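Notes from the 1:1 (GR / supervisor)

We went over the backlog. Supervisor wanted to see one worked example end to end before approving the batch request, so GR pasted a single chain during the call. The sequence is below; no edits were made to it. Supervisor asked that the structure be written out right there so they could see what the output format looks like.
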Amino acid sequence: MVDANMGYTPKQAVEFIKKVYNMGIDVSVFEQPVLANDIDGLKFVRFNSPFPVAADESARTKYDVLRLIKEEAVDYINIKLMKLGISDALAIVEMAKASNLQLMIGCMSESSVGINQSVHFALGTGAFDFHDLDSHLMMKEENIILYTSDFSILNIFFFLFLLNYLLL
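Structure output shown during the call:
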């Protein structure tokens, strides 16, 4: 995965990713190559890139994702629970299923507790092709809490939430 973090104009992004392709480097996803509000630019890159294009900063709400779908601007959406919240994230999972859009799950600067929620969300929905959940590795935590088989209060809450969602 190459995350450009909005670092290119659409033309620069296409030039860059074509050079990467011509060097024989395989990229699974080219993430957010242009500014967040440049939907036309994302679409331009998508249709001129040899690799799938993902939206991250352009997907701030479920309404942003709806626009990205309508405009056929991307191949992937990067869902970050700390940015979107669970309600929007669940709505985006359903929109992606309905429109054959692919999903990846990422993180911002969450501790292991935040990462744990994203792990449960990803496992509970089974909707994600890529998982980028490593921000806790950049923090100094005394006790790292990752997915475990014991049912802590957090695990029980999240399990019940997902069970309720899946039964709807």
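Supervisor's comment: Strands lie at 2-3, 30-31, 53-55, 76-79, 102-105, 130-131.
Batch request approved.
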